[in-house]
Every structure is written in structure tokens, then in C-alpha cells.
Amino acid sequence: MKQALSLGLLVAVLFAIFVYFQEAVGASAFYIAALSMAMFAVIGPFGDYFKTAVAMLIGVIIAMAGIIILAAKFPLPPDNIAYVALVSGIAVFILVLLSATGLRIDAMFIGWAGYHAAVFPLYMADASQLAHQALPAAVGVSVSLLIGLVLSLLVIKIAMAVNK
Amino acid sequence: MLKHKKWYTGLAMLLVFCLVFMPAQVALGQTPSKVIDNELVITQLGDNGQIQDIKVLNHIRVFGKGQYVIEDNAGYKVSSLRNLYSKEAISEQNGKIKVSAAVAGDKPYEDIYYLASVKKEEIAKIKMPVSVEIEYYLDGKKVKPSDIAGKSGHLKIVATFENKTGEKKVLEFTDSKGNLVQKEAEIYTPYVVSLSGWEFSNKKFANVQAPGKAGESPGGVVVNIKDNTVVSWTVPLIPPKYPAKQYIVLEADGKDIELPSFKIAVIPVLPTTSEVDSLSQVQNSLSMLYDGFDKIQSGVGAEDKEATLLYGLNAVEQGLNQISSGLGTLIGKVKMLRFGLSNPAFDAASYDAFKGTDAKGNTPGAKDAIGLIKKTVDEKFIPALGAQKMVLTVLQGVIGTPADQGQTPSLSTSLYNDVNYLKTAVAGTPAEKVITEAIEPKLMAINHNVGVFRDGGQMITSSGTVDFPASVSALELGTTMLSNSLGKVDAGLGLMVAGLGNVDKNGNPVKSVDASGNPNTLLYALAAMQAGIEEKALPGMAKIKEGTGQIGSGAGQAKEAIYEGMKTFASVGAIADALAQKAKEADTFLGKPEGAEGSVAYVFQTPEISKQANAVKYGAGAVVVALIILLALGRPPKQAFQAGVQESA
User: Signal sequence span per UniProt (chain B) (predicted)?
Assistant: First the structure.
């Protein structure tokens, strides 16, 4: 029980630290970390968190590539949302294909969605800003997701300690 | 059969496609009714203030109906072209950007937006109409913007703008007198720089100020809105009303400094303001001022122009010269009078009456002569007359009186004694009768007449008595009176001499003033008058003339300046028209389609000052750390994995 409390406290402190210093590591949406934690706490004590992290990063990378292609090569919004649909569809298709390699589809999707949540308003408002913001946003989202994943791992450890 | 059917279906679809798009194909090669080309030139400034990148956002609006190919001119080589909001192909060849536009449906026009990136090597050749230079200072030291990210201190940003479009142009306009005037002026394309919404986070900045300086730098409008202090400036680079080169200053105390990329818009426009037009009032005032100076100049006039101040002053000066000259003559004559009355060089002691001069040959003046006469009268005449009276008295004594008798005649006895002696001696003789009747009466008459000759009275003659006024006593009295009169004449002449005044050895009047300091001799007064005229009045008059001339020339210059000012006022309309024309002509940067209406605006973007690079670095580090943790702790246990495999096997 003591170990569970200690780990719980550790999770709380780490999350609080992350929220406090989120800007320092380029993350501007701390709640993505909570989302990641919620999503992957179900992986369980025997799940592959590292592989999940890789899948999330691939999701982020594919989302970033899609947004960059949209911004650089296709007519821009607001009147050309069809191209967003097209690129998004292709991206999802690629993710599904990649899932066949053993990467978690849910992790890839949350990575893809998390990145879009971060940059899509910017794409709609001023696509030219993506030239400067695409990579920092990718890093920020990745940090949030991975922190959430780490915390979910700790949460599982807590659950393990409690149910020992 | 099925294969052929598919082929026919495909052919039919192609025909339908051709029919649908035929109208658009027909329009190809036609000219649109109107093309509007709007350019936004986006210039990214680098860390050193140089232009790093230029992109042109081009908005072409095509009016007409059908499919058109628009050829937009590209004055600079472009590295990339991007159709932003539509899918039509866009290409560049030989300085022409070709883009197709289909105007279809009820819409009378079609909009095309494309983004052109200017090649880097072209940037150095580009001469922007307005130069933008931004300097950053931290605690008074000039720094690069990238150097201040995350630092603290007193931040100062100085942005300098210069309108580089000035060119000489001859303006034609009608002046206030209705004359057609030509004036060369440097006409600029009017540009307004707008620095709007520069935001400074209140968490990072305090004491945000945007001071201005009259004639050089407009002040900014600083507004504190919630978490940010927002600063805005408007800088009109529109000579001649505003300087072609101006700057803005921002100062703030910063902490952990980060700044976004600020945008500086530069727009060719001649803004209409709500300023109250006081121009006509000023023009009227200037016109009145001009008339006033014209009257001053006319009134001052010239020396040879009658009924003018300078003419009058010249006449006064000539009059003063004549007075001075007349005074010189008068002084000379008065000196002669003075010397005629009394020669200061004359020495009475050495006067030679025969020569009529003193030992040095100086002749006496009237007063000197009077002195000499008086001296002669006093010293010679009066004593001589006294001596004559004494001789006559002695002579009366020698004659004696009838009572003189009884003494034996001798040298000391009187004639009467001697006659009485003889009469006694010849008593009773005829001689006695001669003596008594002839000699004694005669002696008595001689004695009486000698007394009369000395003192005056009735002179006894053979025919009776006659008045004898010319006695020696009367002559003595008259001579004494003459001496006294001469003394008075001398005193009078002395007063005249004193009144005329003395002259020194050089012949100049000796200074002589009364207690009040006024001249008290005629010569000195005349000399003082002459000196006053020559030393004061005439130089003063020359100064007055010079000053009056300066007033006249100053009035003339003022007139010219006012006239130039009035011309400038009169030229305002022409300048405004020229500015408006220049603003209208400044309608493109990259180029525009032939015959198109154009407009252009420039946006300069300052480099962003942020710690984002660090954040990305730290974020990437966090990602790596997280991956390591997950790799270390988040891999499935091998036993469980292996057991699962075994179980599945």
C-alpha cells in the first residue's frame, strides 16, 4: 500500500511538474498527456509501452507530413477542405497499413489526432505559419503523449502494487 | 463484345466531357474585360536586419466570362510559385507568370491567389521603395535580436524608415496673382508605415513607452489591454509635409524577453485626414503680410526715388553736410573775428609803434590796440597834462599878483613885485602912467589868461572876454574820461573775446563748458555743433540710411520668402496631385498583367525572438528520456511474453 501511495504521489508530482514546465519543453496542451494516460493505462502490466510510444510518434510524424503536404502543395482552406479530407483519408489508410506491422493502431491515431489538434487551427487560420510551427508542435505533442504514456506506466505500477 | 462496349462507353463520356467544357475552351485566348492585380509583398527581416526572404502574395481578380490565361509580369526571378486557393496550374517562363482563370456561373469574376517566392540572388538587386532598418538595444548596448531571447534588461527598439522614391519634377500651378508658375520639387511616392498591434506581454515587460520627437519621430499609442501592452504607430513618409526619413522608438523593461514577429505594413497611399483646413486662412494672412512688406519696401525706396524714406534721409544727410560745411566757414570767420579782436600771440610789451607789430611781428587786435592806447593815455597823456598845469601854475607864480611889492627885484621875485618896484621908482613920471595904465592891466590879463588856460573860464582878449573851454584841466579831464572809456571798451572787447572763446596753438577752439557741461564760448559751441554733426549726426544718419536700406532689403527678402511660401501654398494642390499620381503609379512590385489595375502593399516581418529553439531542444530531450524510460520499464516481461508464445504454441 505504501508503494502504491508513493507511486501515486510520484505520478501526481510528475504530472504537476509537467503542467508547470510544459512551455519549457514546447508542449502547450498538457491535457493531451492526460488523454494519453487515460488511453494507455489499459495496456496493462504486460503491455509494450515502448512500442506504443513508437506508434504514437509515427502517428505524429504522419500527421505532420500530411499537414505539411496540405499546406505546401494543395489549395488552402477555407474553401478547399476536400483536400484535407483526401490527405486525412490517405493518412488513416497508411496508419491502418502500418498497424499490420504490429504497431498499435490506437497509439498511432492518438499521435495523429494529437498533432492535428495542435496545428489544425493554425493551418486553417494562417498556413504559412506552419513553416515555423510544424516541428515545434510535433515535439510538443510528442512530449505530452510520451509523458502521458510514462505516467500511465506508473499508474499500472500503482495498480500492480495495490493488487499484489 | 464486352470489351468493345466499354470502349464505346468511354468514347461517349469523352464526348459529353467535351460538350460540357466547350464554352470554356472557346474563351481561351480571349481578353478578360478587366483584371485587378493586388500584391502583398511579405519581407522577412533577418537577425542582422537584412532582408532574408521576399514572398509576394498576388491576388488577381479576373472579370469576364469564360476561360482566360492571364500573363502576369514578373520583374524579378522567382524560385517558386504556389496557387493558394485553387487548383489551376501556374507557371513562370521568361519573366511571365501564366495562370488560367475560369469565370463561370453567375459570378462576374474569378479570384486567383498565388504566392511567389523571389529568388535569393535577386534580393540584393531589389530596391525597396521604403527602407526598413531595425536596431535592438539591451541596456544601451546594440544587440542582435536573437541575442536577447530569454534575457532581462532595458530593451530599446529603434525602427528607421526612409522613403527612397523622391525624384525631381517640375510642377505647374497658378500662383495667388494668377500667374502660371513652374517650380521644381522633389516628389515622393506617398507611403504610410503602419506598425499596428505590437504586443508586449505584461508578464515580461513593464514601463512600455513609445516616445516621439517633433519633426523626426512620431510617438506611439500605448494601450494596456488585459495581459498585453499594445503599441501602434503610424508613420507618414510623405514629404514635404512629413520627413522622408523617420524613426520610431520603443522602450521597455524586459524580463526573460520573448517577442513575436512584428509586422510593419508599408502602403503607398495619400491619406485623407480629418484635419481642419486652415490653409486658406494662412494664405490670406500671408497675402496681407506680403502687401505689408511691399509697402515697407516701397516706403523705404531708394536714394534717387522721390517721396521715399531713403530719398528723404539722403536729403537730410546732404543738409547736415551743408550745415557742417557752413559751420566750418562760420568757425573760420569767427576765428578771424576773434583774432581781430584779440591776437593771443600778440606781445604788448614788445610792441613797436612805428612798425605796428610786436617783436615777433604779430599785429595787435582791436582789444590789444585799445589796451595800447589806454596805456599811452594813462601813462603819457594824463601825466603830461598834469605837468602842463603845473607849468602854468608856476608861470602864474612868476607873474604874481598886484599885491606883490616891496621886494627888491631878483630872479625869484614876481613880475608884479618888479613892476611895483619900478612904479615906485618912477612914481610921478610918465613911466608910472605907462606902468599903471598899460603894463599892469596886461600883466593882470596874462595872469588871468594863464589861469584860464590851465583851469578854463573867460579868456581876456583886447576886444573883451571869450569862453575858453580848451583848458589843460578840461583836456586832462577829457583824457581821463577817454582812458576810462578805453578801459570800458577793453572790458567789453574782453567779454567779446571771452564769448568768442580761445583757440589753441593749432587753431582749434579750446574746450570751455559751463557747470552743466554745455559750451560757453561761441567758437567751442560752433566746433561742438560741427563735431556733433560730423561725428554723431552724419554717422548716425549713415547708420539710419544703412538700417533703412536693410529694412528695405529685409522687406524685399521677406517679400520673396513670403512669395515663395505663397507659391508653396499655391503649389500644395499641384504637389497633392503629383503625390496622388505617384501613389496611383505605385501599383505593383513584381509586375502586373498588361492593362490591369494594380495595388501593392508591403509587409516587413521582424524576426521572432523566442526561446522556442530551446523548448524544442528540451522537448526533444524529454522525448528521448521518455523513450528510454519506456524502453527500460515499459517493455513486456520476457517470461510473460515467452510463456504466452509457449501457451499459444
Answer: 1-26
